[in-house]
Write a structure and sequence with these properties.
alpha+beta, Glutamine Phosphoribosylpyrophosphate, subunit 1, domain 1, eight-stranded mixed sheet, 8 helices, about 25% strand, globular, binds aspartic acid
Length: about 290
C-alpha cells in the first residue's frame, strides 16, 4: 500500500499576514507524519506526530495558542480513530501539552472518552507532558480575548488523516474549541462520527468548523459513506460539505483519504490550510485555498 498523509489547520479566514505561518505549520506537520510513515510507522503514529507539531505551533487553535473560553482559559478536546474502529478521546482538558497523545493512549482503554479532571488524571498517570494551564495561553490570544469579548464563534480545529503501508487508516483531531465558548462546552472534535471517522474498508476523515452544525449531520461519517462505490475523496468531501450547507447553517471543512490512498478536501469557509504528501511527490503540497 502507498502511504499517504493529509493535514489541515482549520476552516477559517486566513489573512494575508498569516498565510506563510499556516503554510509552514501544515507543511512541518505533514513532513513529521510522512517521516513516520516512510520509516514503517503506523497511521496512528503518523497522525499523532503530525498533530503534535500543530499543537506546538501557536498559529493553530490547538493546545499552545488555542482560543480562550469565556473564563479566559484554554480548554481542549482531541480524538483519534483507527480504521479497525478503535478510538479514544478527551474533552474539556487543561494543562496538557499534547491532548492528541492522550487521545491515542486512551484507545487501548475502557472508558475511551474521558473529560476534564478524569482525563487530566489519566494523562498524568500515563506520562503525558503536563504544564500549568496558563502556559498554553499565547499573548495574541490573550489580547484578542480581552479586546474582543463579544466574539463567540471563531472555530478551527487541526486534523490529520493517514494511510500506512499496511493499509491501515487513522484520523485525528485537536482543538481549543470556539472563541469565548462556555466553560465545559464540548464540540464535535471529540465525537466519533462528527469530528473524525476511520474505516479501513472505505477511508478516513477529519473535520473542522462549527461543532454545533457538524454534530447533527455527523459530518465525518457522512463523508466516509460518500466514498462508497470508489467515489473520489474530493467529490465525497464536497458532497459532505454540501449536505451540511443544505441541512444546517454553519461553516465547516473536511479532509479525506480513501483506502487506495487518494486524498480529498472541501470547505465552505473562506480558507482552510491544508497539506498532503504521498508517494511520487518530491515535497509536501500545501494550500490555504483550493
Ligand atoms: N470543531 C470545533 C468545535 O466546534 C471548533 C474547531 O473547529 O476548532 O469545538
Amino acid at each position: 500500500m502507498i502511504p499517504t498523509i493529509i493535514v489541515h489547520g482549520g476552516a477559517k479566514t486566513i489573512t494575508e499576514d498569516k498565510v506563510a505561518a499556516n503554510n509552514a505549520g501544515c507543511t512541518a506537520a505533514a513532513e513529521a507524519g510522512w517521516a513516520v510513515l516512510i520509516s514503517g510507522g503506523t497511521a496512528a503514529e503518523a497522525v499523532e506526530a503530525a498533530i503534535r507539531v500543530l499543537e506546538a505551533d501557536p498559529t493553530f487553535n490547538a493546545s499552545l495558542g488555542a482560543t480562550l473560553n469565556n473564563d479566559g482559559e484554554v480548554e481542549m478536546d482531541a480524538a483519534m480513530m483507527e480504521g479497525s474502529l478503535s478510538w479514544g478521546a478527551v474533552a474539556a482538558v487543561q494543562g496538557i501539552r499534547h491532548p492528541i497523545s492522550v487521545a491515542r493512549k486512551i484507545m487501548d482503554e475502557k472508558p475511551r472518552l474521558l473529560v476534564a479532571r478524569g482525563a487530566e488524571r489519566f494523562a498524568a498517570e500515563n506520562g503525558a507532558e503536563l504544564c500549568k494551564k496558563e502556559d498554553l495561553i499565547a499573548d495574541e490570544q490573550w489580547q484578542q480575548w480581552q479586546e474582543d469579548q463579544k466574539v463567540i464563534d471563531r472555530p478551527n480545529t487541526v486534523g490529520c488523516v493517514a494511510l500506512d503501508a499496511s493499509g491501515v487508516l487513522a484520523a485525528g483531531t485537536s482543538t481549543g474549541g470556539t472563541t469565548n465558548q462556555q466553560q465545559g462546552r464540548v464540540g464535535d472534535t471529540a465525537v466519533v462520527g462528527s469530528g473524525l471517522y476511520a474505516d479501513n474498508k472505505l477511508g478516513a476523515c477529519s473535520t473542522t468548523g462549527d461543532g454545533e452544525s457538524i454534530i447533527p449531520v455527523v459530518l465525518a461519517k457522512t463523508a466516509i459513506d460518500f466514498l462508497t462505490g470508489e467515489r473520489h475523496p474530493d467529490e465525497a468531501a464536497q458532497m459532505a460539505i454540501e449536505a451540511l450547507k443544505s441541512k444546517v447553517k454553519g461553516e465547516a471543512g473536511c479532509i479525506l483519504v480513501d483506502r487506495q490512498g487518494r486524498v480529498g478536501w472541501a470547505y465552505n469557509s473562506s480558507h482552510m490550510a491544508c497539506a498532503y504528501m504521498t508517494e511520487g511527490q518530491d515535497k509536501v503540497a500545501v494550500f490555504t485555498q483550493k
